[in-house]
Write a structure and sequence with these properties.
Blueprint (H helix, E strand, L loop, with lengths): L1 H25 L13 E4 L5 H12 L5 E5 L7 H8 L3 E4 L8 H5 L2 E6 L11 H11 L3 E7 L13 H15 L4 E6 L1 E2 L2 H4 L14 E5 L5 E2 L1 E2 L1 H13 L7 E5 L5 E2 H12 L3 E5 L2 H11 L3 H19 L12 H6 L6 H6 L6 H4 L4
Parallel strand pairs: 1-2, 1-4, 2-3, 4-5, 5-6, 6-11, 7-10, 8-13
Antiparallel strand pairs: 9-12
Helix pairs in contact: 2-8, 10-11
């Protein structure tokens, strides 16, 4: 019996030390330490730029129970192994297979949700949300898109944004306390879903990025900033429950300037070419090897390019200060994002190799 008591005391000490460390990292005052979250957290999309960063931050801050879901456990990625080595629990989870939901959510207190990049992804969300309610999830943090729930907003013209709005509405009407993080375009999009001619390992071969932003400046936000905000609201949820935050970059830049920044940091010849929408559609369709992927992926990409071309993101009123309010610092610039290669997934690092 004494050994059992001793084990419990040691475990409690470790959790306490982790809490102190986390409080220090997020700047939480001593009187709020008892409100810090210590339950199991389930992170979806841990193989992506946001899920990976959030899981990484939770583990680095000493959170004692972080679970990540993977569709194919027999084919885990390098960065899944990295998270596992830091203490993450890896479980089978497949958005398309509802039978995997219950086990993945067992004893989970908080869910950090990045919706999957698959066809008809929004159709999987209601079942997952119901599974969360049934599992007794107490807090749900979802990543959404800028102005997704603003009725009659021009951003509603993009199907991708409307689908996020529908899912956000479901979450807001559920029984689970929530926080929604509505972000502008990710700086990582160009690297992860780069619409470029593959240069392979040849560093001398030019890389051409294609788009249709018509020379307008675009508001790109760093995935590091979104992950930092997410981690802070997860770890200390009380002031953030039933709130929606708008996460934007410090200032807009053109896709031409983004290509120049990529070229500078990767030391590769990278250029941006702006195309008329009809030519861009054709180039995108020609780039897919699977016919099944063409319609929805091209539709989403073109929808976002049309939004960029409106020029709305050049307006000072587009910028939110929510990142600065929550993180107590200004959002990262593109240069700062590209310098932080240690935080990147392999999906982003290809251009530096």
């Amino acid at each position: 019996m004494n050994e059992i008591v001793k084990d419990v005391q040691v475990a409690t000490l470790k959790v306490g030390e982790a809490c102190d460390y986390v409080c220090e990292k997020i700047g939480l005052k001593a009187e709020h330490h008892d409100e810090l979250v210590t339950g199991r957290i389930f992170v979806t999309g841990a193989q992506g730029v946001l899920g990976y960063r959030v899981a990484q931050r939770l583990l680095n801050s000493g959170h004692p129970s972080t679970r990540i879901g993977y569709r194919y456990l027999e084919d885990l990625s390098e960065f899944a192994d990295q998270l596992s080595s830091k203490g993450a629990e890896v479980v089978h989870f497949d958005w398309k297979d509802k039978t995997t939901y219950a086990a993945a959510l067992d004893a989970v207190k908080i869910v950090f949700c990045v919706t999957p990049y698959i066809e008809n992804w929004a159709q999987t969300f209601p079942a997952f949300l119901r599974a969360c309610e049934k599992a007794g999830v107490e807090y749900f943090v979802k990543v959404s898109f800028y102005h997704a729930r603003n009725e009659n907003d021009i951003y509603q013209k993009a199907n991708f944004v409307r689908l996020h709005a529908a899912c956000d509405d479901l979450l807001s009407m559920s029984s689970i306390p929530y926080t929604i993080l509505s972000a502008s375009h990710l700086m990582s999009n160009t690297l992860v879903m780069h619409h470029a001619e593959d240069a392979g390992k040849d560093k001398e071969k030019p890389i051409v990025l294609y788009g249709a932003s018509e020379g307008k400046n675009i508001n790109y936000v760093s995935p590091n900033d979104i992950a930092e905000v997410a981690t802070r609201v997860i770890m200390y949820s009380k002031p953030h429950v039933r709130k929606e935050y708008t996460l934007t970059g410090l200032q807009p830049i053109s896709d031409d300037d983004l290509a120049c920044a990529l070229a500078k940091h990767s030391k590769r010849p990278i250029f941006y070419e702006d195309l008329p929408i009809n030519m861009l559609v054709q180039k995108e369709e020609d780039g897919f090897t699977s016919v099944d992927d063409v319609d929805w992926k091209v539709r989403d990409f073109i929808g976002l390019e049309k939004l960029k071309a409106t020029g709305l993101e050049e307006n000072i009123g587009f910028i939110s200060h929510d990142i600065e309010k929550i993180c107590k610092r200004k959002p990262e610039t593109v240069d700062q994002y590209l310098e932080a290669t240690e935080s990147m997934t392999p999906l982003e690092k290809w251009i530096f190799e």
